[in-house]
Amino acid sequence: MKFDWKKFDGFLLFAAGATLLALLHPGDAAWTPAEAETVRLALEANAAGGPASPGACGAAGPAAVWLTQLFLLFTSDPVAIASAVTVAALFGAWAALWRLAGIFHVPAGPGAALCFCSPYLWFYLRMPVGTAWLVGLSLLYAMFLALYMREGKAGAAVGSAATALLMSYLNPAAILLPAGAAAGALVFRPAEFRRDRKNFALGAAALLLAASPALHTALFRDFSLAGFQYGFREALLSARCLTGFGFSDRFAPETGLGWPGMLLFASVPAVAFLVVLGVAIVIRRVRRGEGNTFDRVAGSCALTLLIGLPLSPLLFPGAGGGEYGAVFAFAWLLPAWRGYAVLASDYRLFGRLLLTAALALELLFLLDFSRQIRSNAGGASESFGTSLGRQWLVAGRLAAARRANPDLRVEIKVDRWRDRPETLRTLLRLADETELPPAGEYVGAVLLPSRSGCGIDLIFLEKPVEH
User: Fold this and answer.
1) For 238-287, where are the alpha helices, taking DSSP H only?
2) Beta 456-462 vs 442-449: how paired, if at all?
3) Taken in order 302, 114, 264, 124, is the CA torsion positive or negative?
4) Which stretches does DSSP call E strand in 219-371?
5) Per-residue pLDDT tens for 110-123?
6) 392 and 297 in a common domain
7) Which of 2, 220, 265, 340 has its CA 20 to 30 A from that of 50?
């Protein structure tokens, strides 16, 4: 049987390339105080012999702590945990996107490539805890939403509500997603909405009740006008989650990103154009009564953004940051996917060239970014810092030396570890539960920033010779 290259979805190659790149070198993921806090809570809960209490999780999502507890039952290696989380999140994202393509009757390649080639979403999918799950669940939520918009069946609505509930235990802002779905049902499925309005009301009450353990600690926590302004800005900036806009400033390695980082800016207007085109197409088709399932879902995504972006920082201060892009990933992705589908149907060559160029620039950037963080052991910003693998290597060597000499004196000259010592302490606790190679006897150790890159050097002071 002869293979027909004309029918092959070439955009799948971009998505597959970005996926494979995300799976390489899991130790190059970020390890910040937020990740350390989640792992610390998981370790303490496991030591206590039960799941962590939602009220004791603070800013960390309870579900992130619970999932980390589960992984810690099998391994104390944070790099192995990061790898497993990435694999699970990527599998869920691929499954949801493939199912969405079947529901919309469009090729899966463009949507998958827009998702996985996005520098922000690619980076989030490599996070050791929390954020990676949000990306996969966000797309799973979109799948259930699409099923409801196509069939109007209660089972799909229950599936979307259950997914939003789980997401709310990762980030409380996700509890607003069903509000966007309800608005979409009211606009695009009015007959079914009127028929099921009592069920919607009961479902909303049940959803809020089930989510209350996660919500009550986050609702209006540490609210301030300045905090709301910052949170609202971050919510609006979630629009960049499909592009690389501002990525270099947030995660760039110390040595800079070179010419691929400069070329990345050329892809931003192309992706933004697809998002705007998708929303415009949905409005026009719905007004003409020509809307299909894809239009209804993309329109519901736009309504979700209109409701969720202003309310999230108001109701849940401190729950945003980079995670807004993960929570609302589907709401930005589907309008862009819809925009490309229409553009490619009317202007096939132009549409394919536009998206191919944008994806090529993004994938080239990801390749260069991966090379840079590999050689520099991380990035230079507060959002990245030294990579997980380098920090874990240093912590393992230090823990082995402490086993040989419990009175080992450690001098920390790394600002990040000196100011926020919990990141090192958590890694040392993990290392204490890991089998380590024996170390020599030393009287002291000094932790220094690497002379180049973003790594950390560990210098041991040998035990003095007795005469």
Assistant:
1) 247-251, 258-264, 267-287
2) antiparallel
3) positive
4) none
5) 999 999 999 999 99
6) no
7) 220
> Which among 198, 85, 101, 181 is positioned nearest to 134, based on CA atoms?
85
Residue with tokens 């290259």: 5
State the number of CA atoms in the 13 A half-sphere of 197 facing the CB.
Answer: 8
Assess whether 292 and 440 both reside in one domain: no
Domain co-membership, 360 together with 393? no
Sign of CA dihedral 305, 110, 156, 165: negative
Angle among Cα 125, 127, 131 to the nearest 5 degrees reads: 70
Number of independent structural domains in the chain = 2
Alpha-carbon span 304 to 413, nearest angstrom: 46
Tell if the pTM clears 0.70, that is, is over it. yes
- The answer to whether 36 and 136 are in contact (CB under 8 A) is no
Query: Residues in the chain with pLDDT < 70?
Result: 1-7, 58-59, 217-228, 230-231, 252-257, 317-322, 452-453, 463-467
> Strand 409-412 relative to strand 442-449: parallel, antiparallel, unpaired?
parallel
Element (H, E) at 459: strand 456-462
